Amino acid sequence: MHVFSKYADRRSSILLVAATLLVLRSRIYTFPRDLIARLTFAARRGQLTDDELAEALQQVYTEEKDGSKTLLVSYRNRLSKVPIRPTPLKKFQEDKKYFPLLTASSQAKPNVDRSFVRQLRAILFRIAFPKLRSKETLIVLLHSFFLVLRTVLSVGVARLDGVIVRDLIRADGKGFLKGLALWFLLAIPSTYTNSMIRHLQSKLSLRLRSRLTRYINDLYLSSAPDLRYYRSGLDGIDQYITADVDAWGEALSGLYGNLLKPSLDMVLFTSQLSRTLGVRGTVLLFCNYYATVTILRAVTPAFGKLAAAEARLEGEYRAGVGRVGRESEEVAFYNGGAREKAILSRVYQTLMNHVDSIYKIRIGYEWIEDYVIKYLWSAAGYGLIAVPLLFTRRRRTLGVQTSEAERQGGPGVTEEPDDAVAGRTETYISNRRLLLSLADAGGRLMYAYKDLLELAGLTARLYTLLSTLHSLPPLSSVSSTDSAPENADAIVLSHVDIGVPASGAGHPHDEDEISLGGDAIVDIEEVALQSLDSTSVGGNAQHPPLVRDLSMVLKQGEHLMITGSNGVGKTSVARVLAGLWPPQNGSAGTVSRPKDGDAEDTSASCPRKAVFVVPQRAYMVAGTLLDQVIYPESFAEFATSGRSLTELEEILKMVHLAYLPAREGGWRARKEWRDVLSGGEKQRMAMARVFYHRPKFAILDECTSAVSSDVEGRMYEHAKTLGITLITISLRPSLMKYHTQLLTLAGDGSARWTLSRVGTPEERMGIDREIAALESKLAEVGKWEQRVQELDGLLSAQESMDNAGPADEDAVVV
Ligand SMILES: Nc1ncnc2c1ncn2[C@@H]1O[C@H](COP(=O)(O)OP(=O)(O)OP(=O)(O)O)[C@@H](O)[C@H]1O
């Protein structure tokens, strides 16, 4: 019986544990899993409630098993899913050889030359059209079809035009009406073709932009160790990635239409005309083309260079406006509006001078262009039409429209003068229309040359961006494998020189000036990037080391404080530890640190990061309140990690921000957090991230300077209880008690350093007590000074009384 009851007891306790686990499990998983299921269902349904939409917006991405992502885009209560496949690393490695850096001589000025063709080929066939069978190819084919159709229809319209006028002159009412009906019929496909050409051109431009943007974003926003966004060094990179990519897509898709259609027109119209004009006329026509091209080439300005310079100046202006927007509060505190306006006005004026000078250049060019294309070509056209009409009497030579039956003397054909005039008019009208179309096609080809030059300028900009990003040397500064097993969980620095790495990597700073004539002098960027090789991150004559020959082993649980005066290189040490800067002495110095998320460190489903840095300036990401805590993790990762909102609430409580969700309207609230949160709140939020990610080592770079010291202390203690090893950069001696080692940087220009033990906890607390005693004594200084002044006053009063004594006596005597 006893055994039985014992058995029953055990069973009930097992049941109890199982039930508790189930409840806990549901508590942990309910929020994210439900959310994903609901959203997927809602997305399939198409229509979403406001709440679901807000959740979808928070979600942004869902991750697929194969590494691809599904972007959730909301539009009018609907959610569409856009699959996004990240560009594989292998593709970047393969592409690298197609994007060698441009040397100063080979890059030179953007022009339609071999260098341009090479750059365009690399961008087109490695990025824009990587495969023959793609949607872009289909669009190009469709576009080409409509362009050909448009040319064929133009010939039809020209012929019909002639027939209608002929019938009118013949006073053939029936024929005229028939022609008019045909005219309306032909107008249907003609107009549809026009709008399809425009639509497909825009579509192609959009597709090109998307392809390039995705590729560039994947390359640019590369994770550690590449960190290309941190190291690109290109000024105004936002202009490259946004406006330049867009302008390039538009220029290329527009150019295709502007080249293909006029070329086809030229061939077709010339062949049509040659039937009327004969050999002599056709030869004259070609002489006309040749003369026109020669004249226009001679007077065409350097549109490529001008376009590149304009894009750069636009970028500078854009960056200036963005800076004021970002730092608006700081500018407002200084009341710096007038100063900022002056800076922006100057940049804007430079841009305007440049644009204005382009317009001025265009006056002369377009004047000659119009004169040649419209008037010279038309005059040549008249002359060519006149040849058969004036010098050939025989009727057979008159009409391309006159059928064989008519020539054989078919019905309706008479030798009456009226018919002869009608026939000539028909020929004239058709030929004139063809010639006008020819002039138009020629003009467009000439304009296309100008567009081609502008495309060369934009291509040079894009190529500069791509080649700079591709050519950044690998950042192999930090190895994640430890040579010594006893240091498997430690950060080890061995003979490391720390200093500012060589700059110039990828900076198109070398500038060349071209004169546009008149008052305009424009800087053209000249990219001299040869210096960008892996050796450039080594020694740097301009920047001597800030810290020389630094060697130390920092084991988990050994908390380090780095101190030293301002500008001595404390943050630079953090940069090297985080892998942002390589050791300045190259491979002579080595840095190793534990790997991210070792198996034994995994708590639940979230592996621990090895090193997590909280920088001096607190960064707030665009997104919800929840995104602020989990950054850089995405909501999708949070949702699948199994962690709960309750956990986040606990973390906020720990950093004394528990009131935020209620105050700001919940976890899904989206605000400009940079402005909404105070300086101290932002710093506490940054600490919340540390508690969320629970890294093995946390580098805290003066990130609690605006937090009250009692909260600061509690946060430090909590970090330690979570098993986080602290590396604190600070000038506050009160923080020393939380650390076991002290790295002091000399700050006398010698790049020396000392590493000392802070002592036992009692000693550390003793230091703290001593500091507190000194601080309280310092607080008394004011009072003592006041007392000294009082005593001084008393003494001087006494002295003056002593001095005044005999005088008074004298006075008494008197
Ligand atoms: N990207 C850079 N380019 C040029 N110089 C730099 C760069 N980053 C840092 N420096 C210089 O390196 C020196 C050390 O900078 P660091 O940020 O490490 O100083 P710090 O000791 O952290 O100073 P503080 O206590 O003021 O934060 C400074 O003189 C700084 O001007």
Written description of the protein model:
This protein is of the alpha/beta class and 814 residues long. It has four domains: 2-84, no CATH class; 95-471, ABC transporter type 1, transmembrane domain (ABC transporter transmembrane region fold, Up-down Bundle); 484-497 and 537-758, Rossmann fold, CATH 3.40.50; 762-814. The protein is built from 23 helices and 17 strands. It has helices at 2-45, 50-59, 89-95, 104-107, 114-128, 135-169, 173-220, 228-231, 237-299, 303-326, 328-333, 337-391, 404-407, 417-471, 570-578, 625-630, 635-641, 645-654, 660-664, 673-676, 679-693, 709-721, 761-813, and strands at 61-63, 69-75, 78-84, 478-479, 490-498, 511-515, 521-525, 547-555, 560-563, 590-592, 611-614, 623-624, 670-671, 697-701, 725-729, 741-745, 753-757. The strands form five sheets. A six-stranded mixed β-sheet has the order 11-14-15-9-16-17, sandwiched between helices. The protein is elongated and about 135 Å long. The model is unreliable at 1-8, 20-33, 394-415, 504-541, 599-604 and 806-814 (pLDDT under 50). Bound molecules: adenosine-5'-triphosphate (ATP). Adenosine-5'-triphosphate (ATP) is lined by residues 500, 546, 566-572.
